[in-house]
Design goal:
Layout lengths: L11 H20 L4 E3 L10 H10 L1 E5 L4 H16 L26 E4 L11 H4 L18 E5 L2 H4 L1 H7 L2 H11 L4 E10 L7 E4 L18 E6 L10 E2 L11 H7 L10 E2 L7 E5 L4 E3 L8 E9 L1 H4 L16 H21 L22 H6 L11
Parallel strand pairs: 1-2
Antiparallel strand pairs: 2-10, 3-4, 4-5, 5-12, 6-11, 7-10, 7-12, 8-9, 8-11
Helix pairs in contact: 6-10
């Protein structure tokens, strides 16, 4: 009987060195795809067909230079405030300065913590079992804290700049181009890859509802934006396997086994990009990220959108919306955040073209950004539309 093979966790330095050749080969593959460049629209204000075609072919696209420097500064300030006001440790009601921590006023946890350089969901049944293979976990530095913030939620209620980003006219025009003028929200989350400490996100495909449906197609589970507040580097970025959004539910375990047991999938490519770039990723594309053993910080503001036809009548599968049937009233309530965000952005950027969200056409006066609507959107993420 063969003895079990001992698994030795690499140090952070060993992990980083082991990733170097893989990352640079991945970059070469990524640059050959032709799916990155400035955001462009056609004469009707829709996403340029060349961008849309490349997105549909590969399942993702890197839109360069979408968010300008002044807005990046406002978003970074908002993130820094969230981190400064975070609980001093998991479960604490005060921040590091002894003040009441941010997030206690909301029904859903604002902060998710993990052990440094760990994979908290790979190989578990969490998140609907979407992460079947565990990523390599490295030994953290000797002075590392026991826990680090891994994700933050509620950007539209924790920072005004996050709400304004949600109403960005060009990004909403992209959502309309992909999912139709009556598109609906999904959710939002802030992914943190802290330097030398950030945990991994195991390979997975988003979406749980339609894999076996006769109505399945490559866009039925929607897409996510990721707005990058800092350069997203080869050492900390998201990775995607091109074209997997067209394949239905893929066998991740079999793919890793065929790759000699390594989670460094040979066909994957890195979504490296600059601060202010925005990535679009089909939620059915196989994607994940490795532990951040580099010294570069990544902050990705992530929010997604669906086709209305995918959501209406569907049963929720995640979080507080699990088993809730999404009727018109539920969709309208969650989508009203878009209308509020559009007005908040218009008030802050009065010279910028205002996006016209068709489901709320003629209702704009009911969703002005003010003290009343600030209160009305509280806990909006309890109404997320997850399929």
């Amino acid at each position: 009987m063969a003895e079990p093979v001992e698994t030795i966790e690499p140090t952070a330095a060993e992990h980083l060195a082991g990733m170097e050749a893989y990352a640079h080969e991945g970059k070469r593959r990524a640059l050959n795809l032709g799916n990155r460049g400035p955001l462009r629209f056609d004469g009707d204000g829709m996403l340029h067909p060349e961008i849309l075609d490349a997105y549909r072919q590969h399942g993702f696209y890197v839109l360069e230079g979408v968010i300008d420097a002044s807005e990046l500064d406002e978003l970074r300030d908002g993130i820094d405030n969230m981190l400064q006001r975070a609980p001093a440790s998991p479960g604490s009601e005060v921040d590091a300065r002894g003040r009441r921590a941010l997030g206690l006023e909301f029904a859903r946890d604002t902060y998710i913590w993990v052990a440094p350089l760990s994979d908290p969901v790979g190989g578990t049944t969490l998140n609907g079992g979407r992460h079947p293979v565990k990523m390599t976990e490295s030994v953290p530095p000797e002075n590392a804290p026991d826990d680090v913030i891994y994700m933050m939620f509620g950007m539209c209620q924790t920072m005004d700049a996050g709400l304004r980003l949600y109403g960005h006219p060009q990004l909403l025009a992209v959502a309309e181009s992909i999912n139709g003028a009556d598109f609906t929200p999904f959710n939002d989350a802030i992914f943190l890859k802290q330097p030398g400490l950030g945990g991994s996100v195991a390979w997975h495909q988003d979406g749980l509802t339609y894999w076996d449906s006769p109505d399945w197609d490559e866009g039925i589970h929607g897409f996510n934006f990721q707005v990058q507040l800092y350069p997203s580097t080869l050492g900390n970025c998201l990775w995607v396997v091109p074209g997997t959004h067209k394949l239905g539910k893929v066998d991740v375990k079999a793919m890793v086994a065929a790759n000699q047991g390594s989670e460094r999938l040979s066909e994957a490519v890195p979504l490296f990009c600059e601060a202010g770039d925005v990535t679009i990723t089909n939620r059915q594309a196989l994607h994940g990220s490795f532990a951040n053993t580099s010294l570069a910080r990544r902050v990705s503001l992530t929010f997604g959108f669906h086709r209305r036809s995918s959501v209406l009548g569907a049963k929720g599968v995640l979080g507080s919306g699990k088993d809730v049937v999404y009727d018109e009233a539920r969709i309208h309530e969650r989508a009203s955040l878009i209308a509020v965000a559009i007005d908040a952005r218009q008030q802050h950027y009065p010279d910028e073209p205002r996006y016209k969200y068709q489901p709320f056409a003629g209702l704009e006066d009911e969703f002005r950004w003010n003290a009343q609507t600030r209160e009305s959107i509280k806990d909006y993420n309890l109404k997320d539309l997850g399929i």
